[in-house]
C-alpha cells in the first residue's frame, strides 16, 4: 500500500537526509582513496571496462549507493503504517532467514553468515537489526505492556536475544554484540536502570576474571559479602538467600570465564581480546592490525597528508582499509581536523535522530527512533574505538562509510524507515 508523497514531502526531515548524503559521499571518497594507486588511469570510468571496474571496491560501492537511493524512494512512498503492521511478520521472516543462512551459507573466514546470490553477497545479520528494532518497538507500544511485569520483560528479552543467538551460532560474534545497544532505547521507554547496571557489573567481573587470579577474586567477593551482611543485619534477616544467590552467580562467572574463553570463543576472538588488554605484547603478530591502524591515524597529524596521498592504507599496511578500518583513511589523509569533522557529523546525525524520535506522537515511532540512534551509536563508537585500540576488533562497519552493500542497505533502511514514519507524525499510527 502506497502513501501520497506529494502531500507529505514537506514533512520529510531534510536536514537528516542531507547529513546522510554527506556521510555517504565522504565514505565513498575514502573508499576510493583507500584503493587508489598512482598507476590508476586518470579517468578509470572511461578508460576501463566494466569487468575491470568491478575489481575496485569504489566502483562496486557506487552501485550500492545507486541501489540505496532506490531503496530510499521505496521507503518514503510505502504506507507508513506498514512498518507497524508488518513488524512481527518481518521479524519472523528474518529469524527463518538467519536459520537458513546458518545451514546453507558457505564458510567465509570461519563464519556462515553470507548468502551468495550470483555475484552479490548479502549478510542477513545486518538486516536483522532493523526487523528486531521494529518488533521490539511494536511490542513496547502494546497497550498492556508493563515494565514491572516480568512476563513482559521476558518476552522483550526473547525478541532481542533470539537474533544475536542465531548470529553467534553462525560464528559471527561482532554483529551479535550490536543488539546490546537496544537496551539504551528500552531504558528510554522505562526499563529499570538496574538492568544496565547489572550488565555493566557483569562485564567488569568478567574482565577482572581475565586479568586477576581467580582465587584472589573469589576471596575478595566472599569478603565483600561478609562485610555487607555484617554491616546491614536486615540483609541477613530478610534477603540472605538473595545475597547468597548473587554471590553464587558472581563466583560462577569468575570460575567459568576460563571455560568460556578457551572453549566457546574462536582463536581469532581470543586474539582480539588479548590485543585489547595488551596491544604491545605482539605488535608484529596478533597486534599488527591495531598497531598499523594507530600509525596510520597518527601519521596524518593536524591536517593530514592530503587526499590520495596516504601511504599506510595505499600499500596495504592497514588491513581491511575499505571496510572495518576505513576511519584510518580519514585520519591519515585528512588528519585530526578531518577526523573531528566526521565525528561532528555523526554527533549531529545522532542528535537529529533523537530530535525526530522525541517529536513522534506514537510510542512505536519514538521507540523505533531510539533503536535507530542506539544501533548507529554502537557502530560508530566501537568501529572508531577499535581503529584506535580502545575497543576489540570485532569486525563491524562504520555507518555509511565502510564498503559493503549489506551494511549500506541496512543503515539506509534503518534511517529512512524512521524518516518515513516521521513524515506522517501528524497522523496517528496504529499503536
Automatic annotation (TrEMBL):
<feature type="transmembrane region" description="Helical">
    <location>
        <begin position="218"/>
        <end position="235"/>
    </location>
</feature>
<dbReference type="InterPro" id="IPR001182">
    <property type="entry name" value="FtsW/RodA"/>
</dbReference>
<keyword id="KW-1003">Cell membrane</keyword>
<dbReference type="InterPro" id="IPR018365">
    <property type="entry name" value="Cell_cycle_FtsW-rel_CS"/>
</dbReference>
<feature type="transmembrane region" description="Helical">
    <location>
        <begin position="334"/>
        <end position="355"/>
    </location>
</feature>
<keyword id="KW-0472">Membrane</keyword>
<dbReference type="Pfam" id="PF01098">
    <property type="entry name" value="FTSW_RODA_SPOVE"/>
</dbReference>
<keyword id="KW-0133">Cell shape</keyword>
<keyword id="KW-0573">Peptidoglycan synthesis</keyword>
<feature type="transmembrane region" description="Helical">
    <location>
        <begin position="85"/>
        <end position="105"/>
    </location>
</feature>
<keyword id="KW-0812">Transmembrane</keyword>
<feature type="transmembrane region" description="Helical">
    <location>
        <begin position="58"/>
        <end position="78"/>
    </location>
</feature>
<keyword id="KW-0808">Transferase</keyword>
<feature type="transmembrane region" description="Helical">
    <location>
        <begin position="367"/>
        <end position="394"/>
    </location>
</feature>
<keyword id="KW-0961">Cell wall biogenesis/degradation</keyword>
<feature type="transmembrane region" description="Helical">
    <location>
        <begin position="12"/>
        <end position="38"/>
    </location>
</feature>
<feature type="transmembrane region" description="Helical">
    <location>
        <begin position="194"/>
        <end position="212"/>
    </location>
</feature>
<keyword id="KW-1133">Transmembrane helix</keyword>
<keyword id="KW-0328">Glycosyltransferase</keyword>
<feature type="transmembrane region" description="Helical">
    <location>
        <begin position="154"/>
        <end position="187"/>
    </location>
</feature>
<dbReference type="InterPro" id="IPR011923">
    <property type="entry name" value="RodA/MrdB"/>
</dbReference>
<protein>
    <recommendedName>
        <fullName>Cell wall polymerase</fullName>
    </recommendedName>
</protein>
<feature type="transmembrane region" description="Helical">
    <location>
        <begin position="242"/>
        <end position="261"/>
    </location>
</feature>
<feature type="transmembrane region" description="Helical">
    <location>
        <begin position="400"/>
        <end position="421"/>
    </location>
</feature>
Amino acid at each position: 500500500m502506497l502513501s501520497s508523497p506529494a502531500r507529505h514531502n514537506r514533512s520529510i526531515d531534510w536536514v537528516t537526509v542531507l547529513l546522510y548524503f554527506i556521510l555517504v559521499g565522504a565514505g565513498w571518497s575514502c573508499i576510493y582513496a583507500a584503493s587508489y594507486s598512482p598507476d590508476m588511469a586518470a579517468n578509470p570510468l572511461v578508460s576501463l571496462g566494466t569487468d575491470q571496474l568491478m575489481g575496485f571496491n569504489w566502483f562496486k560501492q557506487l552501485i550500492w549507493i545507486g541501489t540505496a537511493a532506490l531503496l530510499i524512494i521505496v521507503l518514503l512512498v510505502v504506507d507508513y503504517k506498514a512498518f507497524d503492521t508488518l513488524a512481527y511478520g518481518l521479524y519472523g521472516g528474518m529469524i527463518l532467514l538467519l536459520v537458513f543462512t546458518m545451514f546453507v551459507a558457505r564458510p567465509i573466514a570461519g563464519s556462515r553468515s553470507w548468502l551468495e546470490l550470483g555475484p552479490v553477497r548479502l549478510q542477513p545479520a545486518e538486516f536483522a537489526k532493523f526487523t528486531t528494532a521494529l518488533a521490539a518497538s511494536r511490542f513496547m507500544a502494546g497497550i498492556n505492556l508493563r515494565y514491572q511485569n516480568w512476563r513482559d520483560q521476558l518476552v522483550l528479552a526473547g525478541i532481542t536475544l533470539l537474533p544475536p543467538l542465531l548470529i553467534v551460532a553462525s560464528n559471527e560474534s561482532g554483529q551479535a554484540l550490536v543488539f546490546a545497544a537496544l537496551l539504551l532505547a528500552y531504558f528510554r521507554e522505562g526499563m529499570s536502570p538496574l538492568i544496565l547496571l547489572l550488565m555493566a557489573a557483569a562485564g567488569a567481573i568478567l574482565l577482572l576474571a581475565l586479568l586477576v587470579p581467580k582465587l584472589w577474586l573469589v576471596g575478595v567477593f566472599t569478603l565483600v559479602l561478609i562485610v555487607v551482611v555484617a554491616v546491614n543485619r536486615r540483609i541477613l534477616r530478610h534477603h540472605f538467600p538473595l545475597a547468597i544467590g548473587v554471590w553464587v552467580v558472581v563466583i560462577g562467572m569468575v570460575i567459568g570465564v576460563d571455560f568460556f574463553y578457551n572453549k566457546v570463543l574462536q582463536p581469532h576472538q581470543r586474539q582480539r581480546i588479548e590485543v585489547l588488554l595488551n596491544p604491545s605484547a605482539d605488535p608484529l603478530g596478533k597486534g599488527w592490525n591495531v598497531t598499523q591502524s594507530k600509525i596510520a591515524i597518527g601519521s596524518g597529524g593536524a591536517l593530514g597528508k592530503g587526499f590520495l596521498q596516504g601511504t599506510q592504507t595505499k600499500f596495504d599496511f592497514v588491513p581491511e582499509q575499505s571496510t572495518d578500518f576505513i576511519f584510518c583513511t580519514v585520519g591519515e589523509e585528512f588528519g585530526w581536523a578531518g577526523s573531528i569533522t566526521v565525528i561532528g557529523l555523526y554527533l549531529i546525525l545522532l542528535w537529529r535522530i533523537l530530535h525526530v524520535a522525541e517529536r513522534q506522537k506514537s510510542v512505536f515511532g519514538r521507540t523505533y527512533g531510539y533503536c535507530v540512534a542506539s544501533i548507529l551509536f554502537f557502530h560508530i563508537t566501537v568501529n572508531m574505538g577499535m581503529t584506535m585500540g580502545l575497543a576489540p576488533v570485532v569486525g563491524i562497519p562504520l555507518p555509511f562509510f565502510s564498503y559493503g552493500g549489506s551494511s549500506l542497505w541496512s543503515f539506509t533502511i534503518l534511517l529512512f524507515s524512521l524518516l518515513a514514519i516521521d513524515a506522517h507524525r501528524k497522523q496517528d499510527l496504529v499503536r
